From TrEMBL, chain A:
GO biological process, one term: L-alanine transport
GO cellular component, one term: plasma membrane
UniProt protein name: Branched-chain amino acid ABC transporter permease
Record GO terms (molecular function): L-isoleucine transmembrane transporter activity; L-leucine transmembrane transporter activity; L-phenylalanine transmembrane transporter activity; L-valine transmembrane transporter activity
CDD domains for the chain: TM_PBP1_LivH_like
Subcellular location: Cell membrane
Residues annotated as transmembrane: 6-30, 42-59, 71-92, 104-125, 145-175, 204-225, 231-250, 280-300
Family affiliation: Belongs to the binding-protein-dependent transport system permease family. LivHM subfamily.
Main location: membrane
Keyword annotations from UniProtKB, A to Z: Amino-acid transport, Cell inner membrane, Cell membrane, Membrane, Transmembrane, Transmembrane helix, Transport
Membrane-protein topology: Multi-pass membrane protein
From TrEMBL, chain B:
Organism, scientific name: Streptomyces radicis
InterPro entries on file: Leu-bd, Leu_Ile_Val-bd, Peripla_BP_I
PANTHER family assigned: AMINO ACID BINDING PROTEIN, LEU/ILE/VAL-BINDING ABC TRANSPORTER SUBUNIT
Leucine-binding protein domain span: 44-381
Family per similarity comment: Belongs to the leucine-binding protein family.
Keyword Transport attributed: yes
Protein name: Branched-chain amino acid ABC transporter substrate-binding protein
CDD domains membership: PBP1_ABC_LIVBP-like (cd06342)
Length: 307, 395
């Protein structure tokens, strides 16, 4: 493997990893505030993919878009993904989890509800949009390729990388520097004390879901541009991103980012060395090894109540 | 409605409720249809097992329409003193649903023969069940060679297998100038693996260097695979898999700058491929044991009737499935009053039926006796029909 090969594979890994990282944030935020493994988050991601397709289909993109048009289409797709992802996450919390919280339901009930909601949502999507893959409408001249440090990067890859990293920076800012962020961190650390201090827990929880949903939705749109959009598309990236959140230390936002990027890069190198059939073998061996030595994940101790 | 349910509905947003109600009613309606059976008496059913939902549904619908058309025409013709009904056994093209799909067909005593299973993976699982039930399973599309080598009692293959298709791919590539290195990529389904094995051994037999890779159909990223292909510098690429995988893969290949010959098999030979991948699949060759119904003279009239009925031209295996359904109907008619599952199977196994697309006959293992393969190429956003590979390779 030459140096330029390594650079190529690293870029591919970072592209995939930034998507995993963005999805993983959704898992980790919700886990932080509710100690809930929200397995329906993979369907929020799927909804984002459809949101992008719907938004772009509605405006009927031009066949030969100009640079400005391309940029507009991409923004519109991102917006469509974010809106539908955010809406589904918001609805999910309201309809599925809030009633359970009101009744102080046991942890297991939340988990089963999450799995049930996931089944419901992806089958609903299958009914509504058809059980076959949909192409992402063409937004830009697909084959145009940038050269970065000797490796060629396609528009799609660059888009995913830039959008993914921007979202990571934004969410980090939101969590660490804003009022909502301090609310989220307070609820994650100790919900009772937080509510005594005047934090509206319901509001914080709901907004946490929406924040994760916006991220997951955009990730779904970006993933769709790289592959295609389908009602079952959430499953594998969802499971992998959940693993990424655990790898980084579930409940910890920076951990989720680190975990996502790590898994993406490990997958990419595994595929390069042994072929695509070994993708998850490499990734999950790393997961198990890390958890053997650091059961709380790479950055798992920073936030109060960890797994 | 209990208090807790009311609570749930209360928080559900109105538009979700509006969606949920038709879905719920639809589900009830389906259940109602499912329980309507057992009227029997002068009506026989022909089942179809294939993907009627799921990722490769386009392939399944092509065949379903062909079968349905044959049944409708038979019923309307008035030539038969029995009614034929259609029975759908949806296996989603997946091994996991193959047992259930086969069992629903077996459990309906009016089902006299099955067209299918459509895909090789489910066929491997369903065929033994049909064997135990004595129910003939005539597949017009499952091309995995090993299917006829396992002693399935009632399985008949009405299509040349992948040995013929792999050989045709190899013959075609060897006939092209400057093809010395070929990469063969399987999607790791039984179909993809089988076709890859044959193509690889035929190419190696012809003195071509072959690299073999596997890219599972559910991979989350084709970028790595595209890189591997371009870096290897091969002259041609065989993708043994279905259109749903080839579409994003071809896009990544085009981005990565792959300029060799691309060739795939009948699993990718569908207009959906072009719909999903756009101009990225331009120039790709697609082999198929199926003819283009609209192009071949023998089936042109069928193509018109098909289009009139379904508003879409016949797709991959539509005409072949139509033929198989007609063969079954004629076989049932030929048996007179002695119609039983076993009798239908025995008559089919020994039949020689002149269909629109080809002559259908089977050897003692249920293998098809005809091995012609046809070539298509994506040109100008259309699947163009090039004709029999035998002639292309020779010319």
């Amino acid at each position: 493997m030459s140096l330029s090969d390594i650079w190529d594979v690293l870029v591919l890994g970072l592209v995939l990893g930034s998507l995993y990282a963005v999805i993983a944030i959704g898992y980790t935020l919700v886990y932080g505030v509710l100690q809930l493994l929200n397995f329906a988050h993979s369907e929020v991601f799927m909804a984002g993919g459809f949101g992008g397709v719907i938004a772009l289909t509605l405006i009927e993109p031009a066949v030969d878009p100009s640079g400005l048009q391309s940029a507009l289409y991409v923004l519109l797709g991102i917006l469509g993904g974010a809106i539908l992802g955010g809406l589904v996450a918001f609805g999910l919390e309201k309809a599925a989890y809030r009633p359970l919280r009101r009744r102080n339901a046991p942890r297991l009930v939340f988990l089963i509800t999450a799995i049930g909601a996931s089944f419901f949502l992806y089958n609903l999507a299958g009914k509504m949009f058809g059980r076959y893959p949909l192409p992402m409408p063409t937004m830009y001249e697909n084959r145009q390729v940038f050269e970065i440090f000797g490796t060629s990067v396609s528009v799609t890859q660059l888009l995913i990388l830039v959008a993914g990293l921007l979202m990571l920076v934004t969410v980090d800012f939101v969590v660490n520097r804003t009022k909502l962020g301090s609310g989220i961190r307070a609820v994650a650390q100790d919900p009772e004390v937080a509510s005594l201090m005047g934090v509206d827990i319901d509001k914080v929880v709901s907004r946490t879901f929406v924040l994760g949903g916006l991220m997951g939705g955009v990730a779904g749109f970006l993933f769709g541009t790289n592959l295609q959009v389908e009602y079952t598309m959430g499953f594998l990236p969802g499971i992998t991103a959940f693993a990424a959140a655990v790898l980084g230390g579930i409940g910890n936002v920076r951990g989720a980012m680190l975990g996502g990027l790590t898994l993406g890069v490990v997958e990419s190198f595994t595929v390069e060395l042994w072929g695509d059939g070994w993708r998850y073998v490499g990734a999950f061996v790393v997961l198990v090894l890390v958890l053997m030595f650091r059961p709380t994940g790479i950055l798992g101790e920073r936030v109060g109540r960890t797994a | 409605m209990t208090a807790s349910l009311q609570g749930v509905f209360h928080v559900l947003n109105k538009s979700i409720v509006r969606l949920a109600i038709p879905v719920a009613i639809g589900a009830l309606a389906l259940t109602a249809c499912g329980s309507d059976e057992g009227d029997g008496g002068g009506a026989y059913k022909i089942a179809y097992q294939g993907p009627l939902s799921g990722t490769n549904v386009a392939l399944g619908e092509n065949m379903q329409n062909g079968i349905q058309l044959a049944i409708d025409e038979a019923n309307e013709s008035g030539e038969y003193d029995f009614e034929i009904e259609y029975f759908a056994a949806d296996d989603r093209g997946a091994e996991g649903d193959a047992t259930t799909a086969a069992q629903t067909a077996i459990d309906d005593a009016d089902v006299m023969a099955v067209v299918g299973p459509a895909f090789s993976g489910p066929a491997n699982i369903s065929a033994p069940l049909y064997g135990q039930a004595g129910l003939a399973a005539v597949s017009s599309s499952a091309t995995l060679p090993a299917l006829t080598e396992q002693g399935f009692q009632t399985f008949l293959r009405a299509v040349p297998n992948d040995n013929a298709q792999g050989l045709a791919m190899s013959d075609f590539l060897v006939g092209q100038d400057g093809v010395e290195n070929v990469m063969v990529i399987s999607d790791s389904t039984p179909y993809g693996e089988g076709l890859s094995d044959v193509a690889q051994s035929e190419l190696e037999g012809a003195g071509v260097t072959v690299e073999r890779e596997t890219v599972p159909a559910d991979t989350v990223d084709y970028g790595s695979a595209a890189r591997t292909v371009v870096d290897s510098g091969v002259d041609a690429l065989i993708y043994a898999g279905y259109y749903e995988g080839l579409a994003p893969f071809a896009t990544r290949l085009a981005e990565a700058g792959f300029d060799g010959i691309g060739i795939s098999g009948d699993g990718s030979n569908d207009d959906e491929l072009i719909n999903l991948a756009g101009d990225s699949v331009e120039g790709w060759y697609l082999t198929c044991p199926c003819t283009d119904a609209a192009e071949e003279q023998a089936t042109a009239e069928f193509a018109e009737r098909y289009e009139a009925a379904y508003d879409t031209p016949p797709g991959t295996y539509s005409a072949e499935s139509y033929d198989v359904a007609n063969m079954i109907i004629e076989t049932i008619a030929g048996l007179g009053d002695d119609v039983s599952r076993q009798a239908v199977y025995e008559a089919l196994a020994g039949a020689e039926y002149e269909g629109l697309t080809k002559t259908f006959a089977f050897d003692e293992n249920g293998e098809f006796t005809n091995t012609a393969i046809f070539m298509y190429q994506v040109e100008g956003g259309q699947r163009g029909y090039l004709g029999p590979v035998e002639e292309l390779a020779a010319g």
